[in-house]
Amino acid sequence: MDQKFIPLSVPNLKGKELEYVTHAVQTEWVSSVGAYVDSFETKTAEYVNAAGAISVQNGTSGLHVALQVCGVSAGDEVIVPTLTFIAAVNPVKYLSADPIFMDCDDSLCMDPVKLSDFCKEECIFTDGKLINKRTGKYIKAVLVVHVFGNLADMERITEIADEFNLKIIEDATEALGSYYSEGVLKGKFAGTIGTLGVYSFNGNKIITTGGGGMIVSNDKELLKKAKHLTTQAKSDDLYYTHDEIGYNYRMTNVQAAIGLAQLEQIETFIKQKQENYVAYQEGIRKIPGLQMLPFREDIRSNYWFYSLFISEDYPLNRENLIQYLNENKIQARPVWGLINEQKPYLSNQVYKIENAKKYWANVVNIPCSSNLTEEDVQYIINCLKSLGS
Ligand SMILES: *Cc1c(COP(=O)(O)O)cnc(C)c1O
C-alpha cells in the first residue's frame, strides 16, 4: 500500500470559510474594509479578553507596528530571544534599532533569570531608562516569543519589565489560544499580558487567513495609534492629510472572512492537537533516546507545534532522523537556526547563549496539523520505534 505524504503543518478549512468568502465576493466587499474585518477583530478580542484588536497583513507587519507604537526608534535597543523565527526580530531592524539576543529556558522561551541578570549586571538604570553599558544605548522594550504555543514565564518577565521600565511586546504568533490556567496570571491569554501582543494567521499557524495577523492590547490609545499606522497615518478622510509616515498594512475583507470561519473552530483544532500530542507522548515515551518536549504545567497550551528531543541513546542524530522520516513520507524539520548566528545579526550583542544551542542541535519538529489522524500518528510512532528498539 502506498503511504501518503504527511506534511508538518497545513491549513484545515472545513468550516464556514467558503460560505463567508462567497458572501464577501457576492457583496463585492473584498478590500481593506468590510463587515468581516470588523467582526473578525471583535471576535478575536473577545476570545482572548483584550480591550481591542487591529487586523494587519501578517504577523511581521503587526510586530513592526507594535514596536513602533511602543516608542522603539532609530538607535534604541530591544531585548529579543535567539531561538525563534527571524520574523520576530527583523522588525526591530526595520525601525533602525538593534536587538540584544537572550537565551531560552526549558520552555524554549526567553529565560527570565538571564534577562534579569543582564538588566542588573550589563546595564545602568537611570532616570527611568535602562542603558546598555556596552553601547550606551537606551533599551526600550523586551520582545517575548511564546514558542510553539508554549508560554514564556510572563509573571517573572512582567516584574523585570516593571522594574526597568521596559515595554513588553508579545510575539504570540504561534500561541493564539494558549492561556495561564493557574497562578497570578490565571485566565490570561498569550498576547494580552504585555503592552501589546501580535498573532499570525499564516498558513502553518493554528488558524489561517492565507496570510494575516492581529495586534491586541488592553491599551486603547496604543491600539488607536496602531490602526493609524496601518492605514497610511491618514488623519483626515476627506482631505487626505497625513501626520506621519504610515503603512498599508490592513487585512482585506476576504482574508477576514476566512479568519472568522477559522476562529469559530479554534477550540476544536486545539482539542484535536491536544489528543494527537497525548497520543505521540504515549507512544514515544517507550522509545529510548526520544522525548516529546512538554508544555508548561500552569497553562492550557494550544499545542501548536510538537518538539521531539533526541538524546545520544537514540541510534540516529538529528540530520539522519529528518532524512529517515522524509524517506518514509513524513515531513520533519530542525528548529530554526539561531538568529544571532544569521548573517544580518552577526555583529549584534548576545548574552550567555547556552540552552538555545542545545535545543537547536537536538530538536526536530514532527507533523502536528489539526487534521492529522490517529492512524497518521501511529504510523509516525511506528517509524520512530522501528529504529529505537
Ligand atoms: C509566524 C511567525 C511570525 C511571522 O508571522 P507572519 O504572519 O508569517 O508574518 C513571527 N514570529 C514568529 C515566532 C512566528 O512563528
Poorly predicted spans: none
Structural class by SSE content? alpha/beta
Q: Number of DSSP helices?
A: 12
Q: What would CATH call the class of the largest domain? A: Alpha Beta
Major β-sheet, in short? Answer: 10 strands, mixed
Q: Provide the residue-averaged pLDDT.
A: 96
Measure the end-to-end span.
24 Å
Strand and helix order:
HHEHEHEHEEEHEEEEHEEHHEEEHEEHEH
Can you tell me the CATH architecture of the largest domain? 3-Layer(aba) Sandwich
**Considering the protein shown, what is the CATH homologous superfamily of the largest domain?**
Type I PLP-dependent aspartate aminotransferase-like (Major domain)
What value does the Rg take, in angstroms? 21 Å
Number of strands: 18
Summarize the structure.
The protein is α/β, with parallel strands linked by helices and 389 residues long. The chain is built from twelve helices and 18 strands. Helices cover 35% and strands 18% of the residues.
